[in-house]
Design brief:
Elements: H1 2-9, H2 14-17, E1 21-22, E2 38-39, H3 51-66, H4 69-72, H5 77-95
Antiparallel strand pairs: 1-2
Length: about 100
């Protein structure tokens, strides 16, 4: 998830940045639930990719989109890491 955050915010390697596409909502109103979401790749677009890059380009958007908006829209890597850790502990402790 940290690599996905870096790819979205431009601090990851170029090839990782190319594998993720931010969701750009259409219309005048931007929903807070769509903030920070990624667009899953189309099957046609992923034909030339290696197995590992296909895995990243499919799982990164899926997992990131499942995160709460406050985690996805963190202002810095430090706050993202803190919010992600808190979220994962809550999910794990609630299911225990």
């Amino acid at each position: 998830m940290v690599q996905t955050y870096k790819a979205v915010n431009g601090s990851a390697r170029t090839y990782l940045q190319a594998l993720v596409r931010p969701h750009a909502p259409t219309g005048a109103l931007r929903s807070t639930t769509s903030a920070g979401r990624l667009v899953p790749p189309s099957l046609r677009a992923s034909k030339g990719l290696t197995a590992m890059s296909q895995l990243f380009s499919v799982l990164a958007p899926q997992w990131r989109n499942e995160l709460p908006a406050n985690v996805r829209t963190a202002e810095s890597l430090t706050s993202f890491h803190t919010r992600l850790t808190t979220h994962l502990f809550r999910v794990h402790l609630d299911s225990a």
